[in-house]
Structure formats: structure tokens, C-alpha cells
Amino acid sequence: MTRVAKVGLVTALAVGLFVTGGIGAFRSLGNDGRSTTQVTPNGTEALLKPAVGSASLIDEIASLQDRLRVLPSDWRSFASLGLAYVQQARVSADPSYYPKAQGVLQRSLSLNDTDNFQALVGMGALALARHDFSGALQWGERAKAVNPYNGNVYGVIGDAQIELGDYAAAFRTFQTMVDTDPSIASYARVSYARELQGDVAGAIRSMTAALDAAGSPDDSAWASFQLGELFFNSGHLTKAAAFYRRGVELAPSYVPPHAGLAKVAWARGETSKAIARYTWVVQRYPSPEYVIALGDLYATNGQQAEADQQYALVHAEQQLFAANGVNVDLELALFDADHGKPVDALAAARAEWDRRHSVHVADALAWALHANGMDAQAWPFERQALKLGTQNALFFFHAGMIRLALHAPVSASTWLRRAIDTNPHFSILYAGVAADTLAGSERSR
User: Fold this and answer.
1) Which of 64, 207, 319, 410 is most buried, judging by how many CB atoms fall within 10 Å of its CB?
2) CA torsion, ordered 78, 80, 85, 90, to nearest 10 deg
3) How many other C-beta atoms lie within 10 A of the C-beta of residue 242?
4) 426 closest CA partner among 401, 392, 398, 387
5) In angstroms, rounded to a whole number, what is the distance separating the alpha carbons of residues 168 and 57?
6) Neighbours of 297 (CB within 10 A)
């Protein structure tokens, strides 16, 4: 999972429903592993704090269920239970909690639909988790009308605006969030906004501020991992490894920093170590992102049978998410374009483009068109993906390969060089392809 998508799902639910929303291959379908955040009957603080690692959420769910058996008209507890279910879905990668969340949140609103801020924000968070960004924006605006002084509401609204491609509005919303609640959640969003606009140094400064604002070792582990992602994606392997290790030390049960160290091992050419570490990660938290990475490692290592097993698991997870109301068209488009299903990839990418026009959807549609040999149509979409100046090596690689297919070798070389200069380890599948293609293009000139 790239950082661009990752910060998203981690900030409306515990520095958590940003993105990420839904950017990149299964990036926002859940990436925290476990949860420490307690969801209390009288607040929405779980929406602001990072979730990292204890069994308290399960206990809180059981407690709320017991309370509601005795007090079936307690709308606040129904709202809290809905938030807890959304949180549990995220930290367990089990989307079957989303229908449960929808049911109890709707029950809360049926009991109080006038000033039920917590349930409105919960519905917004649920919509974000399901990648229904238009719906999330509507719920966020309703919540804002009830309480414009709570930072959570601006997280929901801004996250939805980001995913819908309304960047100017999203950046204004995030500024309001910072002004309302200068916290780890709001600093993380500022970091992401700066990263989107190509200001990686500014993104690192803002995430460092988030780290400084962390109130616990778990919060610090989350912010450390995000800093590791920023450094990895900008090609600074040693610094990335240091922050990943710090995340592991602060919260040993928190899965993402372990996946970061697996990625570092691959980048350093330690394939066996990388496979072992990703295997450890997938056994504990089989999110599609990590399953894909393990499959791609097997594939590039000549272990196709093992790779196919992982890819089959990815398809099963796709079906599970879709069956529970999660829109995975963007993720399907990227995965299928990379794994031999170009027609399916294009259908999914076009469907997502009909819903929203973010830079990530533009990139996915361009890449799906390229996979189908439709490069003249692909290039305008890739140009749109590049419009914010995001320093995304995968975007640059896609641009280079599309330009090469359009018989523009000089332009292709420029974009491929930018990909490698930004991060020579940007993709398990394509980092070597980029280097080899660039070398071949330069030899032929």
C-alpha cells in the first residue's frame, strides 16, 4: 500500500479513514492490524486516534451489546456500537462488520434524527470505509450542521472531497480541521495534502508534528510507520527502515511496520527474508495489500505456483468486500491490469471514473487503457493524474510506458528516469522493468 492511500483510511477512524480512502490496490480496505481505541458511549474520540493494538475494542463491543439489551432505546450506545463495528472491520480486515454497523447506526438515527452527531459521523465513516465518497460527503455535511466545532466532521468531509477529486475544497477543509483541532489526525491530513501536491519535505514536517503530538506509544508507532512510508516512497531506504523499526519497537503487535521492513528487505535484494517477513505479516493480518505483495514476490522469484495461491486469495477477498458493500472497482482495475486481466481492469476503471475524478482514478484508468493497447486514449488521463505534481514513482512509470507505446522515446525516458530517481524500489513488479526499459531506450537513441 502506498502512503497516498494509506493515510486516508487511517484518519477518520483513528487517524484512519482518509484515503485513503480508496486509492491504490486495496489500500483503503484496512491496514492497521489491531486496535487500542476504546469507543465510548458519549463521544467520537475513536475517530481521531490511531488504532494499533489491544483487545479493548472487542470488550467494548460486548459491553455495548450488553447495555443495549437492557436499554434498547439508548441511541447514543447504538451510535457508539456502530462506530465500534466500523473500527473492528478496519482493524480485522473483516468487512462483514459493515452491514452490522449500518444496522445499528440506522437504529440510532431512527431513535434520534435531530441532533445525533455521533451516528451521523459514524455513517460518514462507514461510507468512507465502503468507498462511497459521495455518500460520505452528504453524511459529513449533515453532521456539520449539527456540530461544526468537532474536528471529526471535517475529517469525514475532507476525506470525501479528496477521494472525489475536489482538492481545493479538501485542502480548505483540512485547514479548518487543523484550526479546530490541532492533533495527530489533523496533522496527518495536512501531511497527505502536502504530499499530494509534491511537497514531500512539507509532508514529512507535518507527519513529524503528528509524531510529536502522539499521546501514547501506539500513536507514536502509527506516526513512525507513516514517516517510514514517506521516506521509502521518496527513495530514502535507510531512513525508512529506521522509522519502520521504531514502529515495531513501540508496538510489536502492530503489523504495518513489519510489512515495511519486509519491503525494505526486498529493496535490498534480500528476497528470502522479504518473503519470510511478508509471510509472517499475512498470517497475522491478511489484508489484500500484503497478500498481493507476497504474491508478486513469489512471481518475480520464479515461484509461480505460490504466487497463484496468493492471487487466488486476493480474488476471494475482493468478493468478500464487494458482498459487504465495499466498492473495490479502483483496486480491481489496478490489480487486474497488473495481473493479466486487461478487459476486466478497464471495465472497473471506467466504472470508477464515472463516480469520481481523483488523480488516482485517472492513473488507474490510464493504466487499464494502456493494458488494452489504447494508449492514445490513456495519455490524457495520465496527464490528469500528474496535475497536482504528486511525486509518485508509479505514476511516472505509467506515464513512461504509455509514452513509449506512443512512440515518444525521449518523453518516455524522461518519465522513466523520474520514476527511478524518485524511488528506485517503487514496485515489486515494475521497478526492474523500469530500469531495463530505460536502459534499452537510451541505448537505442
Assistant:
1) 207
2) 160
3) 16
4) 392
5) 36
6) 26
